Amino acid sequence: MNAPLRLADLTARTILDSRGYPTLEARARLADGTMLRAAVPAGASTGAHEAVELRDHDEAYSGRGVRAAVAGVHERIAPLLTGHDWPDLASLDRALAQADGTGDYSRLGANAVVAVSMLAARGFAHAAGLSLHEWIARASGARERLPVPHFNVLNGGAHAANDLEFQEFMIAPVAAGSEENAVRIGAEVYHALAALVRRRFGSAGLGDEGGFAPPVSDPRAALDLLVEAITDAGYPPGVGQVAIALDPAANSFHLGDGRYRINGIELDRTGLVDYYLGLLEDYPIRSLEDGFAEDDPGGWIALAGAAGGRVQLVGDDLYVTDPARIRAGFEAGYSDAALIKPNQIGTVSQTLEAIRTAHELGMACMISHRSGETWDPFIADLAVGTGAGQLKSGAPARGERVAKYNRLTEIELDHPGLPYGVQ
Ligand code: 2PG
Ligand code: MG
Q: Is 404 labeled as catalytic in the residue annotation?
């Protein structure tokens, strides 16, 4: 079933991401004339151990240009990959890693490498006569599943200009029964929230992921808005109904030494665990991501001891989609779930290995976009093909966010009968 891949005319170019900063799009042609494209997103709240993006650090785009990464595709990657057959994605991705030679992709740039790897995955799918999610399911040996979308409708932290320390407040229609219904619920709650925010605050800006950024600083005020919006839209808030998921992204309010500041109040590890327990008591929260900082293992262990089993604990900056870090974190008892972002680790093969590692350990996976996104819906196919059961792609608004949700409903339309829901 694994037909070989032969690429021609592999090129890259600079495009703008959803924040208006440069990112990289790769293009190539297959023997039958088919054109392949892939575009790479970029994070704002990045983990210290992520694969390294190549940025130009010159006068263009405040130093964020990607001309060197584009040049690397033309001068190093294209001569390596084009004009001969590749038997499978793993060997192509290994060749990319060897050509880079640094272990963190800092020579070729993880932005260049992941774009090419995503494009190659599309090529292998095409060569095998499969759609991308079907090919991913075969490559990863998983059973396909439509994920519960986690819509980030209130933004703070590094993604918004308000005073909310918590980065993401998401709604998850876990009982929607179908992707189409989940998207409808997400959009209706988003519009109910828009009306609520307008009534209460006059107007409010948007954050990077399309969620509202009202002038509140207390996470409880944001959670109250969410519950009210779910209710206003006519749905039942509840962990098994329309649930809430949080990504506090605690790196950004970690003062150091296990001390944190939320809404002007300083908390130690025990204080922060108690704070989260209070939120779990009062709100229908099903998932909590990066509740502690990536370099605070004591905090993670304390949180898992107090809240593990009651709420899904997700490691993002903590694991950076790295199979070894996921395994070590699981063995240390940090969390029971991993966030998955291909550009944190650098290739699609390594991303699939991270998901396989997590699933073999009995951990859950949530597939994720980045705060700076593009037209590319790759992660929607990744979520379905790996059967991860959960995906976050920001608000149910703005082209770069809905590209993913609309791809999920397209897959559902084309494959009636695919199961929906968290595993
Ligand atoms: C996160 C992500 C995506 P960023 O922290 O989970 O929502 O943000 O892409 O800025 O790292
Ligand atoms: Mg995160």
A: no
Please spell the DSSP secondary structure of 291-360, one letter per residue. Answer: -S-TT-HHHHHHHHHHHBTTBEEEESTTTTT-HHHHHHHHHHT--SEEEE-HHHHSSHHHHHHHHHHHHH
- Ligand 1 contact via 247 beta carbon (within 6 Å): yes
Q: Residue 137's pLDDT is what?
A: 98
Residue 142: closest CA among 383, 422, 403, 417: 383
Phi-psi region of 240 (alpha: psi -120 to 50; beta: other; left: phi over 0): alpha
CATH of domain 7-129: 3.30.390.10
Cβ 252 under 6 angstroms from ligand 1? no
Instruction: Give the pLDDT of residue 92.
Output: 98
Which one, of 332, 342, 250, 357, lies nearest residue 295 by Cα? 250
List the CATH code of the domain at 139-414: 3.20.20.120
The low-confidence residues of the chain, meaning pLDDT below 70, are: 1
Using a 6 Å cutoff on CB, does residue 53 contact ligand 1? no
Q: Domains of the chain: which residue ranges? A: 7-129, 139-414
Q: Which atom of ligand 1 is nearest to the CA of 392?
A: 7
7-129 and 139-414 share one CATH topology?
A: no
